[in-house]
Amino acid sequence: MSTKQFNVVIVGLGFGSEFIPIYKCHPQVNMYGVCRRNETEMHKIADAFEIEKRYTSYDEVLADPNVDFVHINSPIPDHGWMTLKALDAGKHVMCTVPMATTIDECRQIVEKVAETGLKYMMAETVVYSREFLYIKDLYDQGELGDIQYMAASHPQDMEGWPEYWERMIPMHYATHVVSPVLGLMNSRAEYVSCLGSGVISPELAEKSGNQYAVESCHIKLKDSPVAAHIWRFLFDTARQYRESFDVYGTKKSFEWALIEGEEHVLHTAKNPEHEIAQRITAPDFASRLPEAIQKFTTAIQDAEHLSFIQGAGHGGSHPHLAHQFATALADDRDPWPNAVISANWTCVGLCAHESTNKGGEIVRLPDFTLA
Length: 371
Ligand SMILES: NC(=O)c1ccc[n+]([C@@H]2O[C@H](COP(=O)([O-])OP(=O)(O)OC[C@H]3O[C@@H](n4cnc5c(N)ncnc54)[C@H](O)[C@@H]3O)[C@@H](O)[C@H]2O)c1
Known about the structure:
InterPro entries: Gfo/Idh/MocA-like_OxRdtase_N, Gfo/Idh/MocA_Oxidoreductase, NAD(P)-bd_dom_sf. This protein is α/β, with parallel strands linked by helices. The protein has two domains: 6-124 and 318-335, 3-Layer(aba) Sandwich (Rossmann fold), CATH 3.40.50; 126-289 and 348-369, Dihydrodipicolinate Reductase, domain 2. Helix content is 30%, strand content 22%. The chain is built from eleven helices and 15 strands. It has helices at residues 20-25, 39-49, 58-63, 79-88, 103-116, 130-140, 175-183, 202-208, 306-311, 318-331, 339-357, and strands at residues 6-11, 29-35, 53-55, 69-72, 92-95, 120-122, 147-155, 189-197, 214-221, 227-233, 244-249, 252-255, 264-268, 277-280, 363-364. A nine-stranded mixed β-sheet has the order 14-13-12-11-7-10-9-8-15, with helices on one face. Helix 4 (79-88) packs parallel to helix 5 and helix 7 (175-183) crosses helix 11. The longest helix has 19 residues, at 339-357. The relative contact order is 0.17. The protein binds nicotinamide-adenine-dinucleotide. Nicotinamide-adenine-dinucleotide binds at residues 11-15, 35-38, 58, 73-76, 78, 96-97, 125, 162, 307, 311, 314.
């Protein structure tokens, strides 16, 4: 293992601060600095975690030659421009989901990564959750058989979250449902068809430019006989938060628990009827990590953050994400998901909303996401 440590600056210290203790313990990362515009709040966090380098300006971070990579955790509308600026400054980028809010920004990021050889990874929590890792193991070992169909849902009532969510469109934050259905077989989405359903309040509709409460989308997987269904809402629909992933194989199928905290269900074909369904809990995968960060699959720093109250620690994914990117830098390989895959996952949602606006017409994913 290389002994080089990569200097990281975390930008945005809400959800972003979750990663500070993980990077502090990771053998290949030096938790170099933090950046937040609100100076008082920034000092509070930097003091608590004893971080010396502090920035209130993103430009100062990018001008610092000691910074190897930025981990961007700013609000969604800022992901695209912040990533592009970091790449222009010669920094590697890990960015929380989604990659960007327009297809053009995704294209620019993919092109810049190809031009510069810098690493880019979208920090998608779902594909490093213990459930996904468990299902992926079952699939890789042939236990599911051939995949016949996948479905994923992400209902979440965003009332009480930062105001910018009122300007968001459900399918523009869809990577938590897109990533598992594409990530399981490492597929790309070829085209989508999406319908809007129900109505949201006129105030929210005016703010976001979207009138539908729910968006429900079918995805055609490229070079595969499989299709998947995903659906989302952000407001005005009654359901507990859930990020579910159901997979149907010829031999075994996995269905996500209906209520958070309950057990999932594994179905085995050809068993006697009453033995087909079995309740299961996904095991933890901390053993895949360096010992120093294993404890973070179950530890949450800020359990009061709405994201953790509703997201229950994102399936223990945070240390896996940090490790994936740190080792990609150390080993000089592409992280997973890399820029092209992240663009395909993000553009599914962007294309889906375009399809919604066209009454469900098929919209093809741009070529630069299929390479
Ligand atoms: N499961 C997941 O993948 C997951 C979970 C939670 C949040 N997130 C993502 O993390 C991001 C942040 O979410 P949050 O809930 O912490 O939001 P938030 O609004 O609470 O925090 C955003 C942070 O970014 C900082 N910021 C904004 N603009 C900045 C700038 N120009 N320079 C430096 N700092 C800036 C703010 O000061 C704040 O600290 C969002 O994009 C969200 O989608 C992802």
